[in-house]
Amino acid sequence: MIEETKTDNRPPAAKPPYAWRVLIVYSLFGAPLGAVLLLLGSGLTDPNPEQAFRLIPIAILFSYPVGGLPAFLTGLWAMLLHLKRNLPGIAAMTAVGALLSGIWWLLMDMFSGFAFAACGAAAAFVLSAFLPKPSK
Question: Do 18 and 82 meet the contact criterion of CB atoms below 8 Å apart?
């Protein structure tokens, strides 16, 4: 008899596994998101906000040397702990983002520490939407 080939034997789409997907998302989007949030915060408190909004493209470009390492380490921490998209996972990511950004600020001694840590926390909070859903 001739066996029919099943189409269900195909490998799944070229989507990286959970651990690497989270690390890639945090590494690519963590630093620019933090920079944009920092400029938006400073633009809202500045009497001349046009300058801050004009600097967003430049800030995105230069955000990787400043915030790339904390964003990568935050994604690595999420990958190693296998955090899920629930309240403890989101809280842990926000705390880790603030902690690593604050430590990185202490090492670099560049900006206001609270603002830098707050932007790291906010970026980690926003990117926690990319954590996988908890299994039922």
Answer: yes
Q: What is the pTM of this model?
A: 0.75
Assigned token pair, 112: 């206001």
d(CA 105, CA 100): 8
Torsion of CA 84, 86, 91, 92, to 10 degrees: -20
Average pLDDT, the chain: 81
Nearest-10 Cα torsion for 76, 80, 84, 86:
-80
For residues 82 and 79, what is the distance between their CA atoms, to the nearest angstrom? 5
Angstrom CA distances, 4 to 1, 7, 9, 12, 72, stand at: 9, 9, 12, 20, 47
